[in-house]
Amino acid sequence: MLDGNPRLNLASFVTTWMEPECDKLMMAAINKNYVDMDDYPVTTELQNRCVNMIAHLFNAPLGDSETAVGVGTVGSSEAIMLAGLAFKRKWQNKRRAEGKPCDKPNIVTGANVQVCWEKFANYFEVELKEVKLREGYYVMDPIKAVELVDENTICVAAILGSTLNGEFEDVKLLNELLIEKNKLTGWDTPIHVDAASGGFIAPFIYPELEWDFRLPLVKSINVSGHKYGLVYAGIGWVIWRNKEDLPDELIFHINYLGADQPTFTLNFSKGSSQVIAQYYQIIRLGYEGYQNVMENCRENALVLKQGLEKTGRFNIVSKDNGVPLVAFSLKDNSCHSEFEVSDMLRRFGWIVPAYTMPPDAQHVTVLRVVIREDFSRTLAERLVIDITKVLHELDALPARISAKIAGEEDKVKNGMVVKKTALETQREITNAWKKLVTDRKSQVC
């Protein structure tokens, strides 16, 4: 009861509403173990059907009777780990065959990638080479990315739907530039597309956009079924272009559950509910249904964007074409910050995150509202009203406390002046500001 309201949690991309019929279906399957393929063959068949339908959605080059190569995962984090491992192993095998060292693999991404890419690089000992951002350009620059590619690069990871501002990276340009570099160097550096957020959006409302297996260097794609795939948290998918892109030695075969079962996952046991829910959504909605949902989300994002622009107080950081979200920052944050706006919105029940951009745009702070299926036009209009109220309340408060704190003397340690870290300063500002608001609330009129 003390948790936030999921429907008002505008920080999350993860689905927070499904039809009651699907809720019942998931509960009916909650006691089935996903990996027990021999005992629950229907669940296995539904997973295979989902893999095939998603592969066709991403324009995989499959024959009429050919089965797609892919697997259901807990989410895009596991999917990215599996795709990354496939790239690493394939690169290592090629290097060994050529008699070359294979102990220093790297992967090229933008600094805007989700933390799971940092986890992959750390856990599986791959150097992460990040393209820095800059103010006004908050996605990976394909030109700079290709410049970072060398003979040890296992792949370049492009993001279809940046977590920071929802923008799609230019996968087509990246593909063209990499083809040229591969011809000059003799390398065959491939592309992975992290379509966690955008994979269930682009095919329906931007069908002409080339980002998927239509591009020859795109060898694998991950997508989160629990985001715009419209399923509750716990399901992701990774699809490979063809069988040659997934090394056989990564696939394990087990028979102690009743039959020979191939498996390529990081975890083992998990519930079947999310797989069944994904199949339900795909056949329930179909292409037209998903298209209607995504178009409605985009329209509600535009309503919110226009409402914020009418206040005259915000700069819009997000793009109209991309994941349906609105990222925005204060035009003037000299008196009060985006963090204060975020904090005060919680009084109305809204969970709207404020965060700083990655290097080299860390001086830019934004607020972000993710528009999901259950975020209506009425809620968008209500949010604008509440943001306006917050701005009026902040205007009535004394000049920013942070100015006072920022001007205070730095800590002194062993006779030396020690500069406060940005995190320490931010915490002091937040705590002091919260104290002021709490004191004002406690006054009896």
UniProtKB/TrEMBL annotation:
Entry-annotated residues carrying N6-(pyridoxal phosphate)lysine: K227
GO MF term (any one): glutamate decarboxylase activity
Entry superkingdom: Eukaryota
GO biological process: L-glutamate catabolic process
Cofactor: pyridoxal 5'-phosphate
Entry keywords, A to Z: Calmodulin-binding, Decarboxylase, Lyase, Pyridoxal phosphate
EC number(s) stated in the UniProt entry for this protein: 4.1.1.15
Stored InterPro entries: Glutamate_decarboxylase, PyrdxlP-dep_de-COase, PyrdxlP-dep_Trfase, PyrdxlP-dep_Trfase_major
Pfam families referenced in this protein's UniProt entry, alphabetically: Pyridoxal_deC
Catalytic activity: L-glutamate + H(+) = 4-aminobutanoate + CO2
Gene Ontology annotations for the cellular component aspect, listed alphabetically: cytosol
Record family assignment: Belongs to the group II decarboxylase family.
Alphabetical list of NCBIfam families matching this protein: Glu-decarb-GAD
Name of the featured protein: Glutamate decarboxylase
Organism: Rhododendron simsii
